Amino acid sequence: MAHRSTTGIASAPSHRQHPAPQIVKTKPLPKILLFVVTLLLAPSLIAQANPFKSAHYAPAPLPTFERTREKLPAPIYDEVPLFVQTYWKAWELAFKNFHEPTAENGFVSQLIDASFSQNIFLWDTCFMTMFTNYAHPLVPGIGSLDNFYAKQHDDGEICREIDRKTGRDSPYWINTSGRDQYSYDGNLT
């Protein structure tokens, strides 16, 4: 027989109470130790399992703007023709900044580069892939990031700036002093 509560909702009889859950006490040290070991080992284990480190570039012709333009998404905005012209100019400039890997740099895929220096930059490449994704797989875009993965260090670090000619990390980001990176130029601000 169900009991009526003060709210008018039937509840189970009080003699059917479930046993209280038992709290198992564990020593916190092993969990903390496991966590610390995982933090220390995970980057190097991930880097060792990185398939890009053993990948090789399969040569293919770079796409050209002239051959690819008709396959690109075409905007329709008759109200402001300058916007459409600007869009096509952006693609034309992008095609001028596609590059192939070389034996010297050891890159594994074609890439897009901002080309204001001989280095490729991780953040610049990330932003350019957002643009080139509109034309995937017609142009090198997201594959540009493969070159950063291929150069990943054994400790898990992926350098933010790589020399496009040699494939080496930019010397400005290599911590040769063993001090915090901000101390490179002595500026703490």
Description:
With 189 residues, this protein is mainly alpha-helical. It is 30% helix and 7% strand. The protein has five helices and six strands, in the order E-E-H-H-H-E-E-E-H-H-E. It has helices at residues 28-48, 65-68, 81-96, 122-132, 146-150, and strands at 3-4, 10-11, 98-99, 111-112, 119-121, 161-163. It has a two-stranded antiparallel ribbon. Strand 1 (3-4) and strand 2 form a beta hairpin. The chain is extended, with a radius of gyration of 28 Å. The mean pLDDT is 83.
Mean pLDDT: 83
Element-level helix/strand string: EEHHHEEEHHE
Bin the strand percentage: 5-15%
Low-confidence stretches: none
Shape: extended
Count of DSSP H/I helices: 5
Largest sheet entry: 2 strands, antiparallel
Percentage of residues assigned to helices: 25-40%
Structural class: mainly alpha
Q: Give me the side-by-side strand order of the main sheet.
A: 1-2
Number of DSSP strands? 6
Distance between the termini: 74 Å
Q: How many whole angstroms does the radius of gyration measure?
A: 28 Å
